[in-house]
Amino acid sequence: MLRYFVADLHLDDKRPDIIRAFVHFLQEKAATADELYLLGDIFEAWIGDDAPPPSLQSVYDTLHQLSSASVRLFFQHGNRDFLVGEAFMHQIGAELLPEVHALETPHGTTLLLHGDQLCQDDAAYQAFRQQVRNPQWQAAFLSKSVAERLDVARQLRAASREQGAQKAEYITDVTPSAVSDLMEQHQALLMIHGHTHRPRMHTNQSPQGGVRIVLGDWDASAWYLEQDEEGSRHFAFKLPDGNPQTAELQDFLAAAD
To answer: Is 41 labeled as ligand-binding?
Structure first.
């Protein structure tokens, strides 16, 4: 079983290089896998399945080609694309995962999540998260016109950038007790998440000595995690102009088991 995991691409028409790199990754890497997991913030913003950004059509088409070729696709909401729904899942042939998903592997239980729910020290963000994940708030938002939704999304992104710049680094990172409690609850030996944009492997994350792998975001480099029977490895390739040539930048994660 070969799996790939990515998060925090923040696909947007302002970064056509990342769009090209992701399509390249899908065609050259993910096409060889059994499963591909998209763990949130794949899109910079998602205002509803009825208004997908047209600049990302090549991404939608390539994802659909993968699922049609028997690569299983899984999508998990992030803090930017929590409004992705079943209509879009049907369009690309993917399955929508819950906020925390326990994946059984030869290495034991692996927890998959975007990771923003682990930042418990950021009380203001957690209050906002609870608000926008409320079905009533979402229904009211989706009832607005596309133009109105785009305007709200722009305001939310601007506020997020401003507030994030004022927060201490530990506030925007995960809370260790939240990690430990969740891993212990599920008796998980491995946790994979994104959100913080701080790629690294952390050991001794739970009473069982669990491992936590933080997926890197896509900016100057494009990060992905590869997992098979031998373990988990984190790679990245640079984003040059034109068609990217995939090259291992680092392999700094040993087998997770």
So the answer is: yes
101 is in an annotated binding site: no
Q: Contact at 8 Å (CB) between 114 and 76?
A: yes
10 labeled part of a ligand binding site: yes
Q: What is the pLDDT of residues 41-62, one digit of tens each?
A: 999 999 999 999 999 999 999 9
Is 114 assigned to a binding site? yes
Give a yes or no: residue 68 inside a domain.
yes
> Is 160 annotated as contributing to ligand binding?
yes
Residue 250 domain-assigned (yes or no)? no
Q: Is 13 annotated as a binding residue?
A: no
**Quick check: 16 and 53 in contact, CB under 8 A?**
no
Look at the pTM and tell me if it is higher than 0.85: yes
Q: Which domain holds residue 176?
A: 3-238
